[in-house]
Specification:
Chitinase A, domain 3, Alpha-Beta Plaits, Trigger factor, domain 2, 442 residues, single chain, five-stranded antiparallel β-sheet, four-stranded antiparallel β-sheet
């Protein structure tokens, strides 16, 4: 066997593989002999079928399979041995006529090579990284929500202007076959619809418009039992009969409530409850701020790290990479959609390789262990039994999909930490509302 590479340019090459008879003949002979031992052909005892007959019936197919196996094995061994950083997969060159009767064969494969990349992590203008602070009024609102959630319902005879007030009644429209009972809060209603409810008493019937009834049109699906399309296009008058009005009175901030929220007894005062709420909110805010920061760094790196790609090769590869062959136009569109992701994938790989960020197995195992302990603690389960926790970790790491998911989370964590320490940043402290306006502009 002879393998060589012809460099077309910096990003494209052709691998030529010459396979000779002695590369495959022994294996073909062995497979045919095995067939002869097990073949059941009328007129011959098992294991006594003439070798010539076996060769005539199966010889070409076995030879083809073995040549293909040798070809694939040698191709990818060569790529690994030569440490070629290829993009996509090798593509057989077109118009290679193969005569299966021949003894020697030559195959050619086109490959696309990853470019050399230089990553600049020190922009002149620092990349903005937001630190979201938890405002006292947010904690106040969460305490109030908790009190409402664990409080008790007190029946009222009239609708008053209170977000948490719950009303129960029946929606009716004969033409649209709507006749459903629903319970919802005033907070879910649009401002215009809320005005129609204020002052109404038990037993009152009044007309409402389905369009703009709730702040979220999808609420119609749940409360009126209509389809998704109907929820967005329904514009009819509907009769509502008020049957119940309930005010949810907040639960007292006492040990009974604290124990419901934290069965481990870690909270005994309102101050400790507020600290727990702040801690949980801060964790969520940090995750959102980190994701935004990573997205911003990603955009910067893709926009400012210039390199060429083997574009023609990649488009050709995309045409045949999937289950269904794409047209040239479809491959062009797919390349346009995936180019940014490919560029960042190469940049990220370069950053991780240069800075030894690829997760090691022990890191993966420790990360999984900490994640599982956090999940157990969240449900009030003990986390100090190491053998129990390690048993769960071992089972999780036997699931390929779980391993990939955990690995992605670990890579995310390592990249965030690395970028925070090594990218020029401009840290800005903001409230959550300020962050939302910047991160998700309308």
């Amino acid at each position: 066997m002879n393998i060589n590479r012809e460099q077309v340019d910096a990003l494209n090459a052709v691998i030529k593989i010459a396979i000779e008879k002695n590369d495959y003949a022994d294996k073909v002979e062995k497979v045919l002999n095995d067939y002869r031992k097990t073949a059941s052909i009328p007129g011959f005892r098992k294991g006594h079928v003439p070798a010539g007959m076996i060769k005539r019936q199966y010889g070409k197919a076995v030879k083809f399979d073995e040549i293909n196996r040798v070809l694939q094995d040698s191709l990818y061994k060569y790529i690994n041995d030569e440490k070629l950083n290829i993009l996509g997969n090798p593509i057989p060159k077109e118009k290679q006529d193969i005569n299966i009767e021949a003894d020697d064969f030559t195959f050619e494969f086109e490959i696309g090579l990853a470019p050399a990349i230089e990553v600049n992590l020190k922009p002149k203008k620092g990349i903005v990284r937001y630190e979201i602070t938890v405002a006292d009024d947010q904690i106040d609102k969460q305490v109030e929500r908790i009190q409402k959630q664990f409080g008790k319902l007190v029946a009222k005879g009239e609708v008053i202007n209170d977000d948490s007030l719950e009303v129960t009644g029946t929606f009716f429209n004969e033409e649209k076959s709507i006749d459903t009972q629903a319970t919802f809060t005033l907070e879910e209603l649009s401002d215009a619809a809320r005005k129609e409810f204020i002052g109404k008493k038990i037993g009152d019937q009044f007309q409402l418009q389905t369009k703009g009834l709730f702040k979220d049109a999808h609420s119609l699906m749940h409360y009126l039992k209509v389809s998704h399309d109907e929820a967005h296009h329904l514009e009819v008058e509907i009769t509502f009969t008020l049957e119940e009005v309930n005010e949810r009175q907040g639960a007292a901030l006492d040990q009974e409530l604290f124990n419901k929220l934290f069965p481990d007894g870690s909270v005994t005062t309102e101050e400790q409850l507020r600290d727990k709420i702040k801690e949980g909110a801060q964790h969520q805010y940090n995750e959102q701020a980190d994701q935004h920061f990573l997205n911003t760094v990603t955009d910067y790196l893709v926009d400012n790290t210039k390199f060429e790609l083997p574009e023609t090769f990649l488009k050709k590869w995309l045409r045949t990479a999937g289950e269904k062959e794409l047209t040239e136009q479809e491959a062009e569109e797919e390349y346009t959609r995936s180019e940014k992701g490919l560029r960042y994938q190469l940049i990220e790989g370069k950053v991780m390789e240069d800075n030894n960020l690829h997760p090691k197995f022990e890191e993966l195992k420790d990360f999984a262990r900490n994640y599982i302990k956090a999940q157990l603690a969240q449900y009030g389960m003990p986390t100090d039994d190491d053998s129990y926790v390690d048993g769960i970790v071992d089972r999780v790491l036997q699931n390929r999909e779980e391993v990939q998911r955990i690995q992605q989370q670990l890579v995310f964590k390592k990249l965030i930490e690395f970028y925070k320490e090594n990218v020029n940043t401009d840290v800005k402290k903001v409230t959550f509302d300020e962050f939302v306006k910047v991160a998700f502009p309308e």
